[in-house]
Design brief:
mainly beta, 3-stranded antiparallel β-sheet, homodimer, 138 residues, 13 strands, 6-stranded antiparallel β-sheet
């Protein structure tokens, strides 16, 4: 785990930014957020500590693309198996889809999030990913 | 140079994809392109060999964001000084702006390109960046 954390520090390309206090209420564990673009598209670098994941949520009126840049993590759409994610992976989340994403238990994780349109489309935040569900993942 | 090329190979996160033959007529030197997303936003990983750059061009009806992931390169808007780019840098190019981007003389370069909307907005390709202009850059 130590080595993976070190790799993550060395491997992270975009600055990690500040602790994501504004959205902490919708996350299990600590995450960091760095807003890279607010025009054309809304692009953020999101970093999750090991074990951190966001609650189930739905993007309304917009789609989201995740571009994985470092670490190891997961993304799951409601009713489908979780998909393991590694650097270079790309995930497209259609609008209106209930889903969550976050780090693996033992590894930091970072992805770019691209949301279109840039102007704040609403997110509906739902229940946490339960420890029971999450702990079934490797 | 050799070491930087090796770093680039190790540092590249997104697969380099195929030689960009379709647009070779608008590039000085060899580039590679890997399309990562065609829905929500049009996202490509673009890789330039040392010395490679695209011609001056204009995106009509869309904006473009460059997210630099590896190497060293340049982006220049018409009438402004060229801006040196490194991993983690983000460039926003407003629609209708004449510009070029590409690698440094002695280093590979890779960026993600995010274009919104995803559906093919036209690019107006203009003249090459002259060797005289380019060779003034370090």
């Amino acid at each position: 785990m130590k080595q993976q954390d070190d790799n993550m520090q060395g491997g992270a390309i975009f600055p990690r930014g500040k602790k994501n206090d504004a959205y902490a209420q919708y996350f299990t564990g600590a995450s960091y957020q760095n807003v890279l673009s607010t025009e054309i598209a809304y692009i953020r670098n999101v970093t999750f500590e090991p074990g951190c994941r966001n609650f189930w949520h739905i993007h309304h009126q917009c789609g989201q693309i995740l571009l994985v840049t470092a670490g190891r993590g997961w993304c799951q759409e409601w009713g489908k198996p979780a998909k393991e994610l590694h650097p270079g992976d790309v995930v497209s989340i259609p609008q209106g889809t209930k889903h969550w994403h976050g780090a693996a238990k033992d590894c930091w994780f970072a992805h770019l999030s691209v949301i279109v349109p840039a102007e704040g489309a609403p997110i509906e935040w739902l229940e946490p990913v339960s420890d029971e569900e999450y702990n079934r993942l490797r």
